[in-house]
Amino acid sequence: MMSEADRLTIFDTTLRDGEQSPGASMTREEKVRIARALQRLRVDVIEAGFPAASQGDFESVQAVAETITDARVCGLARANEQDIDRAGAAIAPAPAGRIHTFIATSPVHMEKKLQLRPEEVIERAVAAVGRARHLCDDIEFSPEDAGRSDPDFLCRIIESAIDAGATTINIPDTVGYNLPAQFAGLIRSLRERIPNADRAVWSVHCHNDLGLAVANSLAAVREGARQIECTINGLGERAGNAALEEIVMAVRTRQDDLPCDTRIETREIVPTSKLVANITGFQVQPNKAIVGINAFAHESGIHQDGVLKHRETYEIMRAEDVGWGTNRMVLGKHSGRNAFRSRCDELGIRFETAAQLNEAFQRFKELADKKHEIFDEDLQAVATEAVAAMEEDQSVTLVAFRCCSETGETPVAELTLQIDGEERHNSAAGDGPVDAAFKAIDGLLNVQAELLLYSVNNITTGTDAQGEVTVRLERGGRVVNGQGSDTDIVIASANAYLNALNRLRTTGGRTHPQTDGV
Ligand SMILES: CC(=O)SCCNC(=O)CCNC(=O)[C@H](O)C(C)(C)COP(=O)(O)OP(=O)(O)OC[C@H]1O[C@@H](n2cnc3c(N)ncnc32)[C@H](O)[C@@H]1OP(=O)(O)O
Ligand SMILES: CC(C)C(=O)C(=O)O
Ligand SMILES: [Mg+2]
Question: Which residue ranges are recorded for the region named Regulatory domain (predicted)?
C-alpha cells in the first residue's frame, strides 16, 4: 500500500503546454475527449489550458471542468489580476480545481522580458498567489525559468509564495538547460534552505531541449519532488515536455531505486497516446519508449530466440501492461529459424521434415532481403512453395531471368533454366513481359499445353508486396495448376508457369474440368 509520502502526483499538461507545440491547437470538443482519456488513465491533475489566452480556451477549460470528476482541473494564469480571475472562473465548475500562476525569475527573463526589478517580481508573485487563494484553495506557483535563476532569489520568492498561500511549488526547467545532477542539487538545496518548504508539495516541470526532461524529472523525485508535470507522448513547447508514459513506467519498473509510485492505470497509456496523436496529428516515432510501435517489437533472431525462451531476456516491461495487445515478433532479414518456426506454428503451417523447414526458411530469407516486412500471408506463400518444391519433382527450375520493357518497344525476356541438371539459355519477345517470359520458356521446353488461366494477386498491401500468380495449363485432357510468388510479378509468373509445367511432366495433373467437373 502506497503511503502519502510515497505518492507521486501526475500533473498532465498535454492540454496546456502540449497544446503550445506549434500546430497542436485543439478544439473544445477535442480537449474534452482527451481529458476523458486522461481521467481513465487516472492522472491526478489535468492542466486544461490558459483561460486568458482566448475565449475559446476559456470555454475549453470550463468544459473540461464541467466534465471531469476524478481528477483536479487546473488553469494557468500569468501573475496578474485579469489572468487569475479568468482562470478562477474557468475552473469554477470542477469538483476539484487548481489555479496555477507563474512569473519568471531568471535574470534574463526579469530584465529583458518582464522588464521588472527582482523585488517587483516578488511583489507580483505574492499578489497573484494571494488573489488566486481567494478564488480557490489549491494554488500552484511556478518561478518560470527556475533552472537558470539565482538559487538565493528562488529561496526568497518561493518562501513568500508559500506564505501567501501556494500549496504546490513547481520548479520549471523552462528551456531544458539543466543536467540531472545539477537539477537534483537545485531541488535538494531549495527544500533544505526554505524554512516553510514542508508546507507545499514540490513539483517539477522539465523541458526536453537537450533530451533530458525525463532524466531531470526523475532526478528531482529522488530529492523529494512529489509531483511531475508531463505530457502524453512528450508533446509540448519546442522539443516538448517530459513524457508521461516514460515517467510513469520508470517509477513503476524501477521501484528498487525510485521511492514512490503513481495511481496511473498503465493499460490506458497506449490508447491515450494514440488518441493524442490522432487529434494533434503529431505521430509517435516508431522507436519512442513505451508508445512507439517498435517499443515491444523484436526483429533480430538472437533477441527473438531469447524472448521466445524467456521474455525477460530482452523485455523489462510487459507490452500488455501499457496497453499493447502483446509484444511482437517481426519477421525480417534479421530473424532466425526459431522465430520463423514459431510464427509458422501459430499460423498452423506444419513442416513434415527438417528439410522442408530449412527449404522454407531459406526462401523466407531470400524474400526478406527484398522486402521490408514479412507478413503472415507471405509466410503462407513461402511455406506452400517450399513444401511443394520438396514434395514434387522440380526437374525444371528458373536459374536467372532478365526482362527489358520500354515505352514504345516490344518487351524481351532472357532466361536461364536448369532442365534435368543442365543449364539452357533462351530469349524471346512478347506482347508484354509475362508473355515474353512464357515464350522464352516455351522455346526451351517445346511446351504443347494450352493456357487456361493466368491470374495475379497481391499477397499483402504496399508496393513491395509479393505478387501471387496462378497458371492453369491443359494438355491431352490433363489440367494442372502452378503457383509462384515473388515481389517481382514477372518472376512470380515465370515460376508459376514452370511449376505447372513440372506438374505436367509428372503424372500429377488432373483430368480436364469438362470431364471431372473441376
Ligand atoms: C513557459 C510557458 O509555457 S508560459 C505560457 C505560455 N503560454 C501562452 O503564452 C499562452 C498563449 N498566450 C496568449 O494568448 C497571449 O500571449 C496572452 C493572452 C497571454 C497575452 O497576450 P498580450 O496581452 O497580447 O501580450 P503578449 O503576449 O504580446 O506579451 C506578453 C506580456 O505578458 C507579460 N508577461 C509574461 N509572463 C508574465 C507573467 N508570468 N506574469 C505577468 N506578466 C507576464 C510580458 O512581459 C508581456 O507584457 P507587456 O505586454 O507589458 O510587454
Ligand atoms: C508555465 C510554466 C510552468 C511552464 O510551462 C514552463 O516554465 O515551462
Ligand atoms: Mg513549459
Answer: 397-518
Give the pLDDT confidence of 288-306 residue by residue, as tens digits. 999 999 999 999 999 999 9
Q: Which residue, judged by its Cα, is nearest atom 7 of ligand 2?
A: 174
**pLDDT tens digits for 136-186?**
999 999 999 999 999 999 999 999 999 999 999 999 999 999 999 999 999
Annotated binding site: which residue ranges? 17, 205, 207, 241
> Residue 443: in which H helix or E strand, if any?
helix 433-445
Q: Which of 11, 15, 25, 50 to mutate to test the pocket of ligand 1 (most atoms within 8 A of CB)?
A: 50
Q: Whose CA is nearest to atom 2 of ligand 2?
A: 144
The CATH number that applies at residue 179 is 3.20.20.70
Q: Say what percent of the chain tops pLDDT 90.
A: 85
Which atom of ligand 1 is found nearest the CA of 101?
39
- The answer to whether residue 185 sits within a structural domain is yes
**Does 79 have pLDDT greater than 50?**
yes
Question: Confidence class of residue 512 from pLDDT cuts 50, 70 and 90?
Answer: very low
Contact (CB, 8 A) for 58 and 83:
no
Helix (H) or strand (E) holding 20: none
Nearest Cα neighbor of 249 from 212, 289, 221 is 289
- Closest ligand to the CA of 49: 1
Last residue of a domain, one of 363, 389, 415: 389
Note whether 329 and 354 are same-domain residues: yes
Q: Is the domain of 382 the same as that of 430?
A: no
So what's the pLDDT on residue 516? 32
**Residue 427 grid cell:** 530469349
Best mutation site among 141, 142, 145, 208 for ligand 2 pocket (most ligand atoms within 8 Å of CB)? 142
Block residue for cell numbers 528531482: 220
Q: Which of 471, 477, 476 is nearest to 502 (CA)?
A: 471
Query: Does 174 contact ligand 2 (Cβ within 6 A)?
Result: yes
> What is the number of alpha carbons within 13 Å of residue 258 lying toward its C-beta?
22
Rounded Cα gap, residues 493 and 403, in angstroms: 12
Q: Count H helices, E strands: the chain? A: 17, 17
Residues with CB under 5 A from ligand 3 (ion): 17
* 397 has a pLDDT exceeding 70: yes
pLDDT bucket at 1, cuts 50 / 70 / 90: low
Residues enclosing ligand 1, CB less than 6 A?
A: 17, 20, 50, 52-53, 78-80, 102-103, 113-114, 144, 174, 237
- Does 401 lie in the same domain as 334? no
The answer to whether residues 384 and 247 belong to one domain is no
Binding residues for Mn(2+), by number, are: 17, 205, 207, 241
375, three cell numbers: 507478413
pLDDT for residue 514: 36
Q: Check if 102 has its Cβ closer than 6 Å to any atom of ligand 2.
A: yes
Q: Do both 329 and 234 map to the same domain?
A: no
- Does a structural domain hold residue 356? yes
Per-residue confidence at 509, pLDDT binned at 50, 70, 90?
Answer: very low
115 & 163 share domain? yes
End-of-domain residue from the set 361, 389, 417 = 389
Let me know if residue 36 belongs to a domain: yes
C-alpha cell, 109: 527573463
Host domain of residue 88? 4-280
